[in-house]
Design goal:
Helix content is 55%, strand content 12%. It has 412 residues and is an alpha/beta fold. It starts with a strand and ends in an 18-residue tail after the last helix.
């Protein structure tokens, strides 16, 4: 049985004694936790004991009852207040009502009426506690289901079924960053060609293992990971700095699970509607992409991890991977459809566009962080790729005179 704490505040000891003695506190589930003879002491004791019910005399020294009630409302907003008043103090009734007093007791307090009032307030406390318990239980259930709710929301978003206001509302409710993800990632495992005799249960275990690896690798980045209707593992990443980490999934899966997966990524451009477009583009690219050789995959990942280093060349990467530069160059062009130099430039310009859009770094700092020796060389390369200067891009000017949200550069 709940035991609710009560404070009796009255400057007359005989009144306090009378109230304390005429009530069967135990039968009501109440206990007198404190008594006070002035308003200041009453406030201190009420806060100290965190009382649930305050019996307050209006006419008290040091701090008047009305002021005490105001302070109680501020510091103990859930405390129930019962006013003890004489007939000549009834002019304060209007102010008491404004302060949401729960009930009145006229002096001298009549035991039966006092018991009735206290019982009614006690019942309110019980009802509110039960309501709070139900809300907490519902909240715990929602939190427990957050991963599923996030997955459903993100799939709806990718399918283009949500309005801008619905998206923002759900992002807030599901405790996700209040902006569009920077990147869509996609993982495809061609299990049907690699393990044609695999049982469905075994296949699901492999997929769960891949998802767990991705979650662990990206633990420092805001994200949502789920599977779409086609069974592809989808990663919505709010921090583009996680792209090199995501690219490393292929090597980790190959090392630990001895299977080959393909990872596709697509930068999200524009507003919330751009996410669905990036998802569709990533799916198309991944579906037509032939499985890359381990050497090209390692080279591509190395670029994602070291693009900021000035002097990064095909020869230096080939040396790091213990491969022939000529062979790597030919394989790169054959499998990705573009030269190493073009891929490196596109990667650097894409990263530069992200920095220009999301930071206040100076042009020289952006150039330095994307592997360019000078600001001039960076600006020339940026304009050649995008059609606008870095400064124009930062201001939202894109080719054709449009605002930001158009194409900044072609994705690989």
């Amino acid at each position: 049985m709940d035991s609710w704490k009560v404070m009796i505040a009255d400057d007359e000891a005989i009144i306090r004694d009378g109230i304390r003695q005429c009530v069967d506190w135990k039968s009501l589930g109440l206990q007198v936790a404190a008594e006070a003879e002035d308003g200041e002491e009453a406030l201190e004791l009420a806060v100290q004991h965190e009382v649930h019910i305050a019996l307050v005399d209006l006419n008290m020294p040091i701090m008047h009852g009305i002021e005490l009630m105001k302070r109680l409302r501020e510091q103990l907003p859930d405390c129930k207040i019962i006013v003890i008043t004489g007939h000549d103090e009834f002019s304060y009734a209007q102010e008491s009502i404004r302060l949401q007093v729960n009930d009145y007791i006229l002096k001298p307090a009549e035991p039966r009426q006092l018991m009735q009032v206290l019982r009614g307030v006690r019942d309110q406390l019980i009802t509110e506690k039960q309501k709070n318990q139900h809300l907490q239980q519902a909240s715990r259930q929602i939190l427990k289901n957050f991963p599923l709710l996030r997955e459903r929301f993100c799939q709806e978003w990718l399918d283009g079924n949500l309005s801008q206001s619905e998206i923002m509302e759900q992002l807030h409710f599901l405790r996700l960053p209040a902006e569009c993800p920077a990147l869509v990632g996609m993982i495809r495992w061609r299990w049907e060609t690699q393990n044609s005799g695999m049982q469905e249960k075994e296949r699901q275990l492999f997929l769960f293992a891949i998802e767990n690896m991705v979650t662990e690798l990206l633990q420092d980045y805001p994200k949502v990971i789920f599977r779409d209707a086609a069974g592809l593992i989808i990663i919505l990443l709010w921090d583009a700095a996680g792209e090199p980490v995501l690219a490393g999934v292929e090597a980790v899966v190959r090392s630990h699970l001895k299977i080959a997966v393909e990872v596709g990524t697509q930068a999200v451009e524009g507003d919330a509607a751009g996410l669905a477009a990036a998802y569709r583009k990533c799916r198309v690219n991944l579906s037509r992409e032939q499985p890359l050789s381990p050497l090209v995959r390692r080279a591509r990942q190395y670029v994602l991890e070291h693009y900021s280093e000035y002097g990064l060349t095909l020869e230096s990467i080939a040396g790091h991977l213990h491969a022939s530069p000529v062979y790597l160059s030919r394989l790169f062009k054959q499998e990705l459809g573009e030269s190493f130099g073009t891929y490196l430039t596109q990667t650097r310009i894409r990263k530069a566009a992200q920095l220009l859009h999301s930071t206040e770094l100076s042009m020289s700092e952006v150039a330095e962080q994307t592997g360019y020796e000078t600001q001039h060389y960076f600006s020339t390369a940026f304009k050649k790729q995008t059609g606008v200067s870095p400064l124009q891009f930062r201001k939202g000017v894109l080719p054709g005179g449009g605002g930001r949200g158009g194409r900044a550069e072609e994705q690989d």
